[in-house]
């Protein structure tokens, strides 16, 4: 049997686009003599659809799309993900389902049993978990079909009390198919491969895995669809972050050798993978919203430099406008570094000095500020004046403003709300400062794109004389390690102290993180590349008083 | 038996504060000869605690608080809400529990069975639903103790397959106690009373209900704790939005007559209740964050006027600073109306004209804008210049900026991001424009506080000559009705057309709502007063293309 794995990029709510793409995939697979073509989880409506799932019309459109797609399934079968209404009187109104289409009709519907409801997942908000699982039969082959999380209850995952694959294996199957919408995180790829491999080994059958690709606002789906033989070795793996179709002969799987994955497999490609994920995230944010041009403030610092490189890669250098806005405390080298970067990339840039602007603000505030010393208010006036210029250009010419804050800054609130925290999207908001440095070196691996001076000079916001980030913050290598343990690993203060960090340092950092929740509430969507990003996957109450 | 209902205001994560408050309530109840004192759901840690529940230290602190509180339960018993660890190897790591404390110890732990996971609720993210339910015995009385949602499976609520009260009623009980964290919505009070009344009638026993009071960022808990007799009539009801303790003799409940509620009971007090909720919301946001002074832009329009009245009521007029920032297109009457309002309330106000500021921005942008006509970019420069002044004063003097956008504007994106959409909190973001007008008249019921001219003039942003809201938007009475049906009632386009709205109008409005998701992503937290507010209870993907 020939299976086509269709690793595609869907658009939430864009039924016409998704349906057309799936139908064209069916015809392409048929042209390649495939017997079955497999699309990803909730491919018809896109994942995550959010509260649109609560609208009758939205689900009606899913049903109509499935019917239309089914009409094209002649001489080929297809597996397509879509919501399915719960016809019982009890439970949530929908199932997260996989539709098996054959001979122009819906032949069978498989419903997801394990619903993730943590981090960025909230499937219990919409879906009822299934408790019965049936084999799908296609051309005499028995397929154990599951959806994403359904395979994640090996090793007694404490979250779930059932294991769909146990039921399916008992009924007897020739191979497994899993359709997924599994978002990228830099340390998740290895885990995912290992878990899929373990499933293949445990149930002693080949596994065909199809994941979505492309970004939906914060979430970036990396694809990485694959085939695994009954020994748990990966025999075929699709390129990440790109749309493609792979044809696999099921009968050849026994003879194929492959590679057994390890959980840490991708760790040495961490920065490269994050970079590619961010490029894909920027490209799809613009593409899906119908924008083509980006604008960003260029400070001569490393965050705006890396952001500009990613944007130029995603959108084309000519579509990324840098704006240099030197102020009273900007250094000459910052201006030169910013210009050098724009020139090296071939991006257009404008220069708008802001000193006369901040002077007007300060003059008009003088009756109220009187003789009070220069402070945060004056620093922020500079950052906010820049935002007004950037947004004016954005409004006038249709640029989308890119935010350049990194995760370390976002964590401790080192940024100006309505100033440098503005933007339609945050490119580096899930990348710690130390990783931004590594990424700059990765970008320069073949030639100097980012000026070396940008990389080696001490980070500074340049909002007051001789300012350095290290005046206000711990050194980034220490800060980032504490943040990683607190945010990603959910280590509490006692656990952090047990790890060897000083209590005073921990108290200082955690207080900054917890009291800046109000700032992060208003930040742009952040491209998620870690297991715990600021944004939809982290819910913290603003008025709370805990460690703060 | 004498029961004390303790309707208190807790602070998320502030264990010291909550513990002290609960202990003091125990002593007060004991002084009043109560046998049992009842506190609200998750009173020890506050509700909702969000992802803090994932930290070991946070739960340890809950346990220590319970132990400390228990020590004070001598000669009196107490029911206190707190998380409880799940000691099974399967399921989410916590239960949402009620601790029954007696003789200085934890005597029994009741675990919540029905976990809400819709709108603002996400209890499945943290908690495992219980499936076994036991009677609590106190001084020979058998108590059917439940937690909030546990009582919401009368009338075959399709969400749940079990009904804790059926189990408890089978075991035999003398009365029911329900502890809750049930947030305010203007049309929810009547529903809640009706549902509680139906429980009392169905199980033929008195019901004692204790709800939290006070606001936690977006959520406002109204209290409204009550006692209901076995006929389902409300015999005692506590004042909403205020902390208090009520003593009820259980043995007298049979002889007490009361009032049977109806679901629409509170509808005629809609605006009054919303007003009180918002005052409580503002007061607690400031109080819990440790701020005392607010700042807001005063335009002479109705939204900033109503916001200022609410803030003055919550914080004291002397703590609310209005800033008039007339620009090129501000009318004389707007300035006078704003001044009249500040004077009528006794609030301080500053005046900062912005024309020289916007002139500088336009001059510096001229090389790029060239001869392009005046448009959105120039309008937004005015709104954003004002935001810079407001935030500068906020940063310098410790004011929190209040956002003055209403729900109609927030819905259709009629506002400037980083301009008038700024603020630490949005006071009216869940109040439609038509309700803002009604509230202004409610505020003026005894004397003219808001200038009549502010109420009767046509709404205008005054960002270009002779601008009116109605140039860009449908009339507010029609707009608000469509928005209410689409947002609160989740009516899809077909259903709206069936209700009699024109297709063209529906298409126009829904497109505005759906394409402005990116703006709402960055708005301040909005005080929730309806059944569906923008904010934590409404999850919409930004890049989606559906009805837009």
Which tags fit this structure?
homodimer; 17% strand; 17 helices; Nitrilase/N-carbamoyl-D-aminoacid amidohydrolase; six-stranded mixed sheet; alpha/beta; Rossmann fold; 2 domains; 19 strands; 548 residues
Quick description:
Chain A has helices at 15-31, 56-70, 164-171, 189-203, 270-289, 302-315, 332-345, 355-369, 376-397, 407-412, 433-443, 452-456, 469-472, 476-488, 493-498, 503-515, 517-520, and strands spanning 2-7, 36-38, 77-85, 94-102, 105-111, 136-138, 141-147, 175-180, 207-211, 213-216, 219-222, 226-228, 234-237, 244-249, 294-297, 320-324, 349-351, 400-403, 425-426. Chain A is α/β, with parallel strands linked by helices and 548 residues long.
3D architecture notes:
The structure is a homodimer. The first copy, chain A, is of the alpha/beta class and about 550 residues long. Chain A folds into two domains: about 1-250, Carbon-nitrogen hydrolase (Nitrilase/N-carbamoyl-D-aminoacid amidohydrolase), CATH 3.60.110.10; about 270-470, 3-Layer(aba) Sandwich (Rossmann fold), CATH 3.40.50. Helices cover about 35% and strands about 15% of the residues of chain A. In chain A, the strands form four sheets. Chain A has a six-stranded mixed sheet with strand order 5-4-3-2-1-14, covered by helices on one side. In chain A, helix 3 links the parallel strand 7 and strand 8 (about 175-180). In chain A, helix 6 crosses helix 11 (about 435-445). The longest helix of chain A has 22 residues, at about 375-395. The N and C termini of chain A lie far apart (about 60 Å). The mean pLDDT of chain A is about 95. The interface between A and B is large, with 92 and 92 residues.
């Amino acid at each position: 049997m020939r299976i086509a794995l269709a690793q595609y990029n869907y658009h939430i709510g864009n039924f016409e686009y998704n349906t057309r793409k799936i139908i064209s995939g069916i015809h392409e697979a048929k042209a390649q003599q495939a017997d079955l073509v497999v699309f990803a989880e909730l491919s018809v409506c896109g994942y995550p659809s959010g509260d649109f799932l609560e609208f009758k019309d939205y689900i009606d459109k899913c049903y109509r799309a499935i019917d239309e797609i089914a009409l094209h399934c002649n001489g080929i079968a297809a597996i397509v993900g879509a919501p399915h209404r719960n016809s019982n009187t009890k439970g949530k109104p929908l199932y997260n389902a996989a539709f098996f289409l054959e001979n122009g009709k819906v032949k069978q519907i498989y419903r997801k049993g394990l619903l993730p409801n943590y981090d960025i997942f909230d499937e219990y908000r919409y879906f009822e978990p299934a408790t019965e699982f049936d084999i799908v039969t296609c051309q005499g082959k028995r397929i154990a079909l599951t959806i994403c999380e359904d395979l994640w209850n090996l090793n007694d995952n404490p979250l779930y009390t059932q294991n769909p694959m146990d039921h399916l294996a008992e009924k007897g199957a020739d191979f497994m198919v899993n359709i997924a919408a599994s978002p990228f995180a830099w340390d998740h790829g290895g885990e995912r491969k290992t878990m899929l491999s373990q499933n293949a080994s445990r149930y002693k059958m080949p596994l065909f895995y199809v994941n979505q690709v492309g970004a939906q606002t914060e979430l970036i789906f990396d694809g990485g669809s694959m085939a695994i033989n009954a020994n748990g070795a990966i025999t075929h793996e699709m390129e990440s972050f790109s749309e493609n179709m792979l044809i696999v002969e099921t009968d050849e799987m026994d003879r194929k050798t492959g590679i057994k994955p390890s959980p840490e497999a991708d760790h040495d490609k961490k920065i490269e993978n994050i970079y590619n994920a961010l490029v894909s995230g920027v490209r799809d944010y613009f593409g899906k919203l119908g924008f083509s041009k980006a604008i960003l403030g260029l400070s001569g610092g490393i965050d705006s430099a890396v952001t500009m490189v990613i944007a130029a890669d995603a959108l084309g250098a000519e579509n990324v406008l840098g704006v240099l806005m030197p102020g009273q405390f900007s250094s000459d080298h910052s201006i030169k570094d910013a210009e050098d970067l724009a020139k090296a990339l071939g991006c257009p840039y404008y220069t708008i000095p802001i000193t006369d602007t901040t002077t007007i603000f300060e003059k008009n505030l003088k009756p109220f500020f009187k003789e009070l010393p220069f402070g945060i208010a004056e620093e922020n006036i500079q950052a906010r004046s820049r935002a007004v210029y950037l947004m004016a250009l954005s409004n006038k010419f249709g640029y989308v403003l890119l935010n350049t804050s990194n995760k370390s800054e976002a964590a401790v609130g080192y940024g100006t709300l309505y100033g440098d925290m503005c933007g339609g999207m945050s490119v580096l908001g899930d990348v710690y400062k130390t990783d931004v440095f590594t990424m700059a070196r990765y970008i320069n691996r073949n030639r100097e794109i980012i000026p070396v001076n940008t990389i080696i000079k001490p980070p500074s916001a340049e909002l007051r004389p001789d300012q350095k980030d290290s005046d206000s913050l711990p050194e980034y290598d220490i800060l980032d390690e504490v943040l990683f343990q607190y945010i990603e690993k959910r280590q509490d203060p006692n656990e952090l102290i047990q790890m060897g960090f000083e209590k005073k340092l921990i108290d200082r950092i955690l207080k900054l993180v917890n009291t800046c929740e109000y700032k992060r509430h208003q930040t742009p969507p952040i491209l998620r590349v870690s297991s715990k990003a600021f944004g939809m996957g982290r819910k913290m109450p603003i008025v709370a008083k805990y460690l703060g």
